Amino acid sequence: MTASQPKRVLYLVVCAAPPAQAISELVELLHEQGCAVCVIATPRATTWIDDSALAEQTGYPVRHDYKRPDDPDVLPPADAIAVVPATFNTINKWVAGISDTFALGLLNEAIGLELPIVVAPYAKPPLAAHPVFERNLRTLSDWGVTVLPNEAIRPQRIELPFNWQPISELF
Ligand SMILES: Cc1cc2nc3c(=O)[nH]c(=O)nc-3n(C[C@H](O)[C@H](O)[C@H](O)COP(=O)(O)O)c2cc1C
Question: Residue 87 C-alpha to ligand 1 middle, in angstroms?
Answer without folding.
Answer: 6
